[in-house]
Please model this.
Amino acid sequence: MSALLRARFDMRLVVLVAPLLVGSPLGTARAAEQPVRNVIVLVADGCSSEQYTLARWFRGAPLSVDSIYVGAVKTWIADSVIADSAPAATAYATGYRSSDDLVGIGPHGKTLSVFPRPPAELVYRPLASVLEGARLSGRATGIVVTSSITHATPAAYFAHVPLRKLDDDIMEQAVHQNVDVAFGGGRQYLVPASAGGKRADGENLLDVLKTRGYQIVASRDEMRRVVSGRVFGLFAMLHMAPEIDRPHLAPHEPTLEEMTCKAIELLAQDPDGFFLMVEASQVDWACHANDPAHLLSDLLMFDRAVAAALEFARKDGRTLVLALSDHNTGGMSIGNAQTSDTYSQTSVDALLAPLRTMDRSSRALWAMVEPDKTPERVRHVVRQHWGMEIGEDEARQILTVAARDKDNPHNAFGEVLCPKHTVLGWTTHGHCGGDVPLFAYGPGKHGGLYDAPEIGALTATALGLDLAQLNQRLFVDAAQAIPGGKVTIDQSDKANPVVVVEVHGRRARLPVNKNLLQIEGNEVALEGVVVYAPNTGRAYLPAQAIRRLVGR
Model:
């Protein structure tokens, strides 16, 4: 094992076991000459070089990212050569490598054989993100996605949970993190079933947002009318529509480009600058489905969002733009088994003609087939929306594959049809372990081959943030910091656990996932959220809360 790999966790250990400086200021180094005021990170989830090549051919012109290509990123995670989005985004957001399914927290104990075991202090520990640091430095912050905002990649920038599927907890932390602009899907996680949502804890977070002065919007037109202030725009109950389907199925939803432009317009009003994370969430889902139509429409829209960020950055002069992916998905190739003997005679028309006849995603195709799962219906839908004349055998094969994959029956279209009717190859419906391209523009831009956590460190440096001090400021182990006190977790309401601290004859309650301290009849707003790590039984509080509790 290389010394560099061994040093990875050792370096982080210094951060986490350093003396607790509960009164220390945030290490921002925000000098007047700080060259970077704003950072925009754009993530094309599940995308690598071959997908960009296909998009360039399809567009027939250079992409916006082409002129800012600077290097690549290694995406492996602590416990796998192939990354899951949650730990991959955690590395980008916090500068720490983590494990499968974990969001914004340190890894569990199991690691790859070439990787040292993490120190006990890091296991399941919440890790401060560059978004949290940007907020504490006085900057405005924003999240723009086409998934639910509780999905793995955006969540890694503001949430700290041991399982990416804890949507209720993630949304609660989003609301209590005071993010200035949030655009995407996930409205069902704001309200309980009694109000038309799916929250299991009975809370109505819409009311919390309104109390905190947020504007709530649910359509493109409503978003356009916002001219200033903080805003939550959740345009779908769960995820937004694929771009290729949006004009037909959800015309009220804004595009990724429109959300990005509006977010920049609002965040740029802060004189201290801003941090914005943008994700083309569904590039990943398109590649999971081996769906070229969905892939091209969402990736080209991502490129337009990058163009919007670059236009602002070029005018502003103090904005760093980073565009990258968290991993590759699908193993797409231009060339497949049927081109094995003819690849050197592949024409542009052979590549593009089948793709230009596709006008719906495979998800939309399956929705049209599902009520009448017959070969005749499959053939009709494929002919009408993918422009392919397929035989009855192929139609039956699609139905057979769909029945086998009950969670993602739409995957059958790409799996069955791409090998025969396109020159595109796919190796998997899962993720891949290769490096992904890195694009960058602006002050603080660097090039080369990066390890994933180095993206988090690069972002923090550009913003003038000290991640070590951020972790000391936001996430203090309550039991260690209050040795003379008693720290327990009240789980009488399983959906709403509360950290209870008894010290110096006083009793305080700190609801998990919220930024609130309740003591002596008062409720104090904290600068960070309270996190409970059920895997270790530890509770983590902002140092601000510790000072209030111990009187220093």
